[in-house]
Amino acid sequence: MTERKRILSGMRPTGRLHLGNLHGALDNWIQLQQQYECFFFVADWHALTTDYATPGQIRENTWEMVLDWLAAGLDPAQSTLFIQSDIKEHAELHLLLSMITPLPWLERNPTYKEQQQQLDQKDLSTYGFLGYPVLQAADIIIYRAHGVPVGKDQLPHVELTREIARRFNFMYEREVFPIPDALLTEVPVLPGLDGRKMSKSYGNCIFISEPEESIKDKISKMMTDPQRIRRNDPGDPEVCPVFAYHKLYSSPGQVADVAHGCRTAGIGCVECKQILMHNVLSRLGPIHERRLKLERETDRVREVVLTGNAAARKEAALTMAEVRKAVGMS
Hints:
Blueprint: E1 6-11, H1 19-32, E2 37-42, H2 44-51, H3 58-72, E3 79-83, H4 89-100, H5 103-107, H6 110-118, H7 127-130, H8 132-141, E4 147-150, H9 155-171, E5 181-184, H10 212-220, H11 241-249, H12 252-264, H13 269-295, H14 298-326
Parallel strand pairs: 1-2, 2-3, 4-5
């Protein structure tokens, strides 16, 4: 039997997951666990790089996110689910990698300046924020992952990880780390309720675990084609956020009918949204049921995390034994 290749990915614990998280990463993870040996982790140390001044919600957010993972379909029998900060070897490898990573490699990181500009209300002129790609590299190569599922915006981070792994292997003349590949995934574009990028900071999200009535209310108030003012005005579905959701939640026949009805004014926005409401709730219904059950089984969920932590710690310890030998500190 051919041994399955290993992949690793993580999410920052920012609380309940929204539909952008579901379609941007989680759905892909659920499919990948059928093909690969998967390690998925809660990146709580990474959350501190931007929220170090207000860390109080991180542990609660971790719990909420793990519940969403399990409810959506991540299977602990197929994937190792764990919490980054519970595996102290990540910090040790991060320290050792930071000794060999040239500063210009970090300063050229395209998201470094971008995030400083986007989060200008926070002081991100810290060592931790500049060096978080090194921690990210440690997260990946400590499990000797062969691949990292990412969207295009994360490709520079994977390439930096590859450079760091190659530099370590070359410098210490040992092939300790395999060079991980980026598993490029097509991420569906799912705008927020107001047409902007879906983001908790914008308050324009639909959450995976949100009650049905709240989802209906949000969809009913969604932004539509701004040029379609009256019921008999023809619209352009390609500029309407509601239509972007139809592409994900409605059948091909419904998508075609909605698009035609919009362009010819044969369907109104209220009717269009009612079709979407039904399809979104049908998709999320089973997730809601599983999550309600998991919320009553707290011991079971904790056991999933503890078991995942133990498995991750075992793998990380094996790698660090090799790393310490390589650097002469065994």
